[in-house]
Amino acid sequence: MPFAFRHPFWLLMVASLLALRAAGQEPLKVGEVASLTGKEGTFGQSSHKGTLLAVEKLNAGGGLLGRKIELVTEDNQSKQGESATATRKLISRDKVIAVLGEVASSRSLEMAPLAQAAHVPMISPSSTNPKVTAIGDYIFRVCFIDPFQGTVMAKFARDTLHLRRVAVLDSVSSAYSVGLAKYFKAGFAAGGGTIALEQKYSEGDKDFKAQLTVIKAAGVDGIFVPGYYTEAALICRQARQLGLDYPIFGGDGWEGSPLLEIGGKAVEGIYYSTHYSPENQAPAVQAFVRDFQARFGGEIPDAMAALGYDSAMVLADAVRRAGTTEGDKVRDALAATKDYPGVTGSTTIDAQRNASKAAAIFTVQDGKFKFVESIAP
Amino acid sequence: MAEFLQQTVNGLSLGAIYALIALGYTMVYGVLRFINFAHADVFMAGAFLGYFLARLVPAESFGGGLAVMAGTMVGCALLGILIERLAYRPLRRGPTLNVLITAIGVSLFLEYAGQLGFGAEPRTFPALFPQRDFNLGGLSISSNQLLVIGVAVALLVALQAIVHRTRIGTAMRALSLNPVAAQLMGINTDVVISFTFGLGSALAGAGGILYAMNYPSIDPLMGVMPGLKAFVAAVLGGIGNIRGAALGGLILGLAETFVAGSPWSTYKDAIVFGILIVILLFRPAGLLGKPAVEKV
Questions:
Q1: Contact B217/A213, CB-based, under 8 Å?
Q2: Which CATH number does the domain housing residue B12 bear?
Q3: CB under 8 Å to A187, separation ≥6 — which residues?
Q4: pTM score, whole prediction
Q5: ipTM summary value
Q6: CATH code (residue A20)
Q7: Looking at beta carbons, which residues of chain B come within 8 Å of A204?
């Protein structure tokens, strides 16, 4: 018996490969690096679902340049160093046309130099630290940046919460946290407020009582915690335990269901800023929320999901306008993005390859996230 | 003054947990002369076991909490004995280095098996015991903090009694002094070693629950940092010495808390580990350790 008949599997493989060649239908590969597991797993999962939904929608509409899109996703387990390895693999082995990711600024900063060196366009959906896009002209983002977010929260603390003396508790090992703290402090002091003291922690810390005890002794009327949801929830719990009952507030790193689960009663009445509100009645937002819920079992998309979706859509828009997948042409098209109607607002890429958009403020009421107000740039 | 007292309470409750984990490192080292790196992951397994057992008992009840604690300690003891039986015993006659590398392997195995089984997402640990916050003139102490300190002291006393007052404890000490002579005197070394692992792992299980009650977000990699710090605590106190491990844990917990609450909080871990290096420079065998002469 000839080899192929004894091994129908091989026959099938060869046949399907030939069929693909013949039709010229090799899919376009788009790389994605996300923290699907680990400490910021909720962010990665949300962002990934948004990106996946965008790719599926694009494919249902005929793909890009007549070819289907294949999303190659790598998990970095929320660990340092893994994002660089994953990006290297995506660029050298999978030969992706562009890289999407990451949520956390520290990890986007690992990826950006590699994408820049290989001249592969990279779009971070939601890294807000300004340094990320400063790495080079192939690095873009579709979210607002920390100078804006920090200023918004400073304004909100001063004008809406009427705080005068605030403590800052930020993480030394997160580029996001350090950056956001810096811009908040500048904004709050510029408006006549006082930063009473700044305390530090490290990513992965679980005990914040020491820092909170010092804050308690300093006598402030609010605490700004520019960190991620796990730490934020533990900080709120321990602060309430120590009898600190004034407002605690943070940035977009707070948004995630674990904040409510871990924080429980302690996170009632906190405030944080984020990128979009699912309660926005704009047709594009409502269509996205509907599609997302239909695809992922009724889950309401959060800001990370919306930004993940927008990152893929902005890329697709640029590839369409470029008419090719060559790195430098796609880069030029991305840089020329103007008023792209995204789910998280109208996206225009500025000279620093950042997007400028409005911020939404949320609070927690009766164990649920609740939209408070929207602040325009 | 209130701030100083508050930081002392914070530091003691953190140190008590380090001490509980450090005891496991020190006991295994005392008997077998090797560092059981999988210990920190037994600690993690304890937290998860507690998480699942807690569903079977009424929430925030004293009896239920104690039952979960006891169940977890038994479960972790069995896990520790199993690890020793499957991974370490076949290598006992080999060089210590082989066992050490195997221990790292077991540690990674437990961490990633945990990610596979429980998922890598942090989970929220339920409230086991009824909770209250006491406020004494600006000093707040939670019932959880008191419980941690209380349980740590009770277990430490029990452990001292077992090691110094019981036959099996005598056998453990004999094995630690000279394994060959102990065997010649009719001590069943397998049983004693299994018992040591079981006891150490039970303490890690209790530590896992206490840690999870105070910091209620648990994930399969939660053991890594506390494990590392407890190991350092054990070395600081003099590895192989039970009282030393407890002392080391307390010193580490207090140092960490006071540095974290100072203007130098950015350099918390650097300063804490710097203190340790200085202490070890002057007392290489640890605070309570006896310098041993290596016979070549």
A1: no
A2: 1.10.3470
A3: A150, A151, A153, A154, A155
A4: 0.81
A5: 0.81
A6: 3.40.50.2300
A7: 225
